[in-house]
Amino acid sequence: MIELQNVTKIYDGNVIGVQDANIKIDQGEFVFLVGESGSGKSTLLRLLIKEINPTSGKIFIDGQNVTRLRSRKTAKLRRRMGFVFQDYRLLPKKTVYENVAFAMEAIEETQRRIRRRVPRVLNMVGLAHKSHNFPNEISGGEQQRTAIARAVANNPVYLLADEPTGNLDPRNAKEVMDLMEHINSLGTTVIIATHDKETVDRMQKRVIHIMDGKVVKDAKGGYDI
Amino acid sequence: MKLRSVKVCVKEGLQGISRNGWMVTASVLTVSACLFIFGIVYCIVMNVRSFANNLDDNLGIVAFLSSKVPEESVPTLLDQIRKMDGVKEVQYISAEEAWESFKESMGFGEQLGTDMVNRLDQDNPLADSASFQIYLYDAGDQEAFVSQLKTMPQFRRIQYAAETAAVMSNINRVITIGGLVLILLLIIIAILLISNTIKLSVYVRREEIEIMKYIGATDSFVRIPFVVEGIMIGILGSILPAVTIYFIYRAVLTLVVRQFNETFSQMIHFLSMSEIMRMLIPAFLVVGIAVGILGSLFSLRKYLKV
Ligand SMILES: Nc1ncnc2c1ncn2[C@@H]1O[C@H](COP(=O)(O)OP(=O)(O)OP(=O)(O)O)[C@@H](O)[C@H]1O
Ligand SMILES: [Mg+2]
Q1: Which position has the higher pLDDT, B98 or A89?
Q2: CATH 3.40.50.720 at B58-162, yes or no
Q3: Cβ(A195) to ligand 1 under 6 A?
């Protein structure tokens, strides 16, 4: 369970990222974080993976106050979180397979487990046949799915994605969202930041709408307030 | 950390070296240069020290006993001197012994012996030259010690090489301190050089490092390949100077033996090859490895803050 209590993030120069957010997300939920560009969606996600720390307020993840953690504890926390970057951030000199295996090597998994797990994950995202291609040899949708495969390789409790459909055409966007729903159905809590109104309206999930850093709506349904 | 992942890290360290081949070569060579100078300085310092110590040994104080001191009281007096501050060794040299050793050390043939006796008539060695030979731990303390001896009526005359002793101990000190400072400077330069190379290696892999951190890799896990790379640069960088110094030192030793006669090369006693190498090779490895580790840790600090 994720719980934000009065979380405020103010960037250098008095720029408001998030203001007084109170959000509770239960295990197994599927949540959209929506809002205009600059409203604070990425800021919220970055707070959750501890890329940045809140200026004030508290963040609890599975009951643990993560506002101030030492580097080793932060590493442990991040192992429970899969993160899909807006720009994928695949390693260009590694193949699809190696990019996913890399996530498991980074947390010191054994080669045996890596060899068993990676093909399964690639199979799930429908990229088994592209295992040995490099990122620049596959399409944007496929790169996005590789990034998702990497994020779920370590079986995270939470899957966080920043604009996963931002650069995709509607057909690819739908494929990626179907994949997200599938991953959610396996028990992973999914949190997606997006301003893709069409997708949000279609899927009718819980929507947290942010405007200028403030939560203005938190309900099941469509994009609009 | 599991053994298997250590293997992965070492592999990646090696990859890092092959990835930045030129930079690594340059940095290995500069580390070699630093260690080479380190080695030369070390050889000089150690030899000067050993030379100075050797000389110290020969810079004894000779205190001639007054004729009023009876033979029986010598052991008590000997004991008294031995207990004084800074005394390393005291020897009693009776008049007969003094004469014998004098003849021997000058290397005069038997036929000259009688001649010498005649010449040294007024300070007859057989009669009046019983003495104490006193060696101090630090030849620099001789002056103070001698003034102490002069207050004792049992001695008639005291001989010592005042200036030589002071100069030697000064040279010794200056060279040792100067050498240490120089070596420290070289070590710092080597650390900076290695850290620059690793910085490049880190820069090339900065994306990877960032992603690893977001995935939940620990700092130590991220560090290891770079530390391994640094260590390898350090070890590679110490091989060349070790070999070079071996050959240079060997050449110097042969030169000394060939050029100077035996007495001189005995006086300026050079440390043997094994005495030098026994210390220098471990020192190179320790410094090389330490410099490699420090250099890589310095260069990583910035990137681990994510
Ligand atoms: N590192 C930063 N330093 C200063 N201000 C920042 C920083 N990152 C974000 N901001 C500001 O914080 C506010 C929220 O930004 P954020 O990236 O969270 O918005 P967003 O909702 O993700 O936007 P988008 O849909 O364009 O990705 C914006 O005004 C932005 O300019
Ligand atoms: Mg954003």
Answers
A1: A89
A2: no
A3: yes
Kindly indicate whether the ipTM for this predicted assembly is greater than 0.90, answering yes or no: no
Instruction: Tell which residue, A191, A149, A142, has the closest CA to residue A167.
Output: A142
Residue ID of nearest Cα to ligand 1 atom 1: A11
Dihedral of CA atoms A160, A166, A171, A172 in degrees, nearest 10, equals -60
Query: Is residue A217 predicted with pLDDT exceeding 90?
Result: yes
Q: With contact defined as beta carbons under 8 Å apart, do B116 and B108 qualify?
A: yes
Structural domain boundaries in chain B: 3-56+167-305, 58-162
Q: How confident is the model at residue A165 (pLDDT cuts 50, 70, 90)?
A: very high
Q: Where are the domains of chain A?
A: 90-154
pLDDT tens, position by position, B21-68:
777 888 888 889 888 988 998 888 888 878 777 766 666 788 888 877
* Pairwise CA distance, residues B103 & A200, whole Å: 112
Tell me, using a 6 A CB cutoff, whether residue A37 lines ligand 1: yes
Instruction: Look at residue B304 in the predicted model and tell me its pLDDT.
Output: 76
Q: Which residues of A touch B207 (CB under 8 A)?
A: 89, 91
pLDDT band at B69 (very low <50, low <70, confident <90, very high): confident
Max Cα–Cα distance, chain B, nearest Å: 97
| Residue B99 neighbours by CB distance under 10 Å | 19
**What is the spatial distance between Cα A162 and Cα B121, in angstroms, rounded to a whole number?**
108
Portion of chain B with pLDDT greater than 90, in percent: 7
A219 CB near ligand 1 (under 6 Å):
no
The rounded distance, in Å, linking the Cα atoms of A121 and A127 is: 9
Q: Which of A7-11, B99-103, B272-276 has the lowest mean pLDDT?
A: B99-103
Ligand 1 atom 3, closest CA: A11
| Ligand with minimal distance to A21 CA | 1
Closest-lying ligand to the alpha carbon of A35? 1
Tokens of B22: 């030129």
